[in-house]
Design a protein that fits this description.
3 helices; 22% helix; five-stranded parallel beta sheet; alpha/beta; three-stranded antiparallel beta sheet; Rossmann fold
């Protein structure tokens, strides 16, 4: 773990003493077990909210939400006893801050089913300003007219700039504006699953 070091000087008996102490630059707010527990709870909440499970489809937002959607689909398949349609939706070209990005990264979109008439659960890793969610809803319109759109996020860190609220939340984490939350998953090459709260150096 990277650390940042602070120096403290104190006077005692006429002599100065220097103490070095280290503070971690990040904190693990969810480990692998907690992530799995949160996803299991979210899946059961989705099942309770949507009795007609055959009408539900999951669409993950890269990067992170696509892998979480796949995991949720497996849990829901065990609950409902049938497979749950799952897709991936890139929001880059629908973002309202596209002009401020020098070289935006475009991720593949893959929605192998008709969204019209379905209850679509958008899945994202972190809910922050709400602008990614808004972009996702705009992008989804290109594929049809869902019956309903719901939002599931692993972490809600606050600081909303748009009137958007998640229907299903794994964990609420109050954060400072300049802090960052990162999701690491084995599907993306990480050594282990964890969610980190990173502080500004």
């Amino acid at each position: 773990m990277k650390t940042k070091t602070n120096t403290r000087t104190s006077l005692a008996n006429g002599r100065s003493s220097r103490f070095l102490f280290s503070m971690p630059d990040h904190t693990v707010i969810l480990d692998a077990t907690a992530i799995q527990r949160s996803l299991t709870r979210i899946a059961h909440e989705i099942a309770e909210r949507n009795e007609a499970g055959t009408e539900v489809a999951l669409i993950g937002i890269p990067t992170g939400g696509d892998h979480l959607a796949a995991r949720l689909a497996k849990i829901l398949a065990d609950i409902w006893g049938h497979t749950v349609p799952t897709g991936i939706l890139d929001t880059t070209m629908h973002r309202d801050d596209l002009d401020s990005r020098a070289a935006p990264t475009i991720y593949p979109t893959d929605i192998p089913f008709d969204v019209t008439g379905k209850t679509i659960v958008l899945v994202d890793d972190v809910l922050f300003t709400g602008r990614t969610t808004r972009a996702a809803m705009d992008a989804l319109n290109d594929f049809g007219r869902p019956k309903k759109i719901q939002l599931a996020v692993l972490v809600d860190r606050g600081h909303r700039e748009l009137p958007i609220k998640a229907d299903f939340i794994g964990k609420n984490v109050p954060t400072a504006q300049d802090e960052k939350i990162s999701l690491l998953l084995t599907e993306s090459g990480a050594a282990k699953d964890e969610v980190l709260l990173k502080r500004k150096p």
